[in-house]
Fold this protein.
Amino acid sequence: MGQVLRYTAYLLRSYARDRTALFFGFLFPLLFMALFGVLNFGGSVRVSLAVVDEAKNEQSASFIASLRAIETLQVTTSEREAALADLTANDRDLVLVIPTDFRIAPAAPGANVPKLTLYENSAEPEAAAIGRAILSSVVNQLSFAVTRTAPVIAIEREEITGRNLEYVDFLTPGILGMTIMQLGISGVAFSFVAERQRGVIRRIMATPIPRRNYMAAHVLQRLILAVVQVLILLAVAVVAFKVTVVGGIGSLLLVAVLGAVVFLCLGFAVTGLLATENQAAVVTQVVTLPQLFLSGVFFSRDAVPAFLKPVADLLPLTFLNDALRDIATTGASLADVSPQILGLVVWAVVSFFAAYRLFRLDP
Amino acid sequence: MAPIVSVRDLRRSYGQIKAVDGVSFDVEEREIFALLGPNGAGKTTTVEILEGLREADSGTAVVAGVDVRRDPSGVKERIGVQLQQSAFPENFIAREIVELFALFYGKRVDSLALLRSVGLEDKAKQKQEKLSGGQRQRLSIAVALVNEPQVLFLDEPTTGLDPQARRNLWELVRAIRARGTTVFLTTHYLDEAEALCDRVAIMDAGRIVALDSPPALIQALLRRGFSKPVVQQQANLDDVFLDLTGHALREE
């Protein structure tokens, strides 16, 4: 164990001196964030929301008022038919129907709670996704507020009104997921193929270090890097891009580490198929590029064509991004993202066995 | 005294090719022993079997009292190696490379003293990938000594070095032997074998075709009636080169 930890420390120190690795691990994701978040999609995304108030009571009015206070939302009120016609005509992103039984009050156990109906414009998937995230966060906060004592309500409400989900808020978890994927797949493939080709691994295997210790140090180094990357990227996102992270940092880190385990195993499995750095360049692209576009890094997955959806839904980066995004933008708990966590665990098990079968230290 | 390396009828094939085809020899303690031969003669395969890096198909090899085929990792603990076509990990300074490899043996070493013993003390803080070819070979020897090995294996240690660096490395090898370590090397430079080694084994097509001290091998050849036109020369081109450029080591 001492050998593994000390070796890990040496590996981290050499990583800190590797400019290329630092660029791809830290600067590159931040550049992406800057590029997409500030230059191109800068400013807030405006989501046009039509509210159909069928309750027409005091509470629905106050609910609508709190929605109006959210900068990102352009709230209009209208009748159901007209609103849906606007949605079809692409004039609205979302239509929210407040039912006649709407109330903001604690429900008795087992009693029916009022159901809000949300119609989404499938032609505007990003706006719809952001709007949906905002609405679910408002509803969550309201439910939370109602079940607590009075002063808490006030504080929570202020948070709701101050909340302004911008594109960078949506983007940041995607960038985290992308960075973890790159760390696992490209990070493993390029360094191990190069070290195997140059005879570095052969030289180390001429010493008595057990292979499991060698592997453990390399895995541990990358898991630590994943945590450091997430923390630094989040810090920069919050400070420089004013990103709001609603959920717990602990939950984010836990999901990030689980994601890192999945992508490290995939990385080792893929590396087992590679002999040269040229092959690594091609194969890592083949593995990562589709996930970059199908797993909701930059855009909502709703934009994925229907025939690709079944595949996109099962990609490892999809599970990772969805979990990170739900935690970061809507404050979901680990229990809320348990389907995604289950997906990641399945991927971890499958890819661990693939790595075990395919990965070789010897050339 | 029992030989420190003892090889009996060692065989290893790659498909149809018999890389090592029934090799037997002994190396005595504190000897500088060389395996000579053209490329593809089976030198590296033989050495890698002795280092516990490759499995033999049959035969026995005992190194420093350990049966290589039964306990390859036990052999690795007792020997030092310098491999052909190998490299150290990048972004480490020379001193860290020594300490890192000591860690692989579960040891702590005085890395500066070890670097001093190979003449690299002033390069301790230099990244290893920035060292010259000769310096890297000496670093590689320092690394091979971290576990105070009983036998030091050097696979073509002077390939690619300039004449000054080669002679410097010979001095280093002699100094290591003087401290009591057996040195087992492969080379295809015959002048190197003649200048450095107590005994040499000449290998060709997977077999050992001669094994003795360099003077004895030459005498045996002459006794077989060999002669070549004698040109009286008090010096050769090597001497000219070294006379003009000196023995001092160069920075590459």
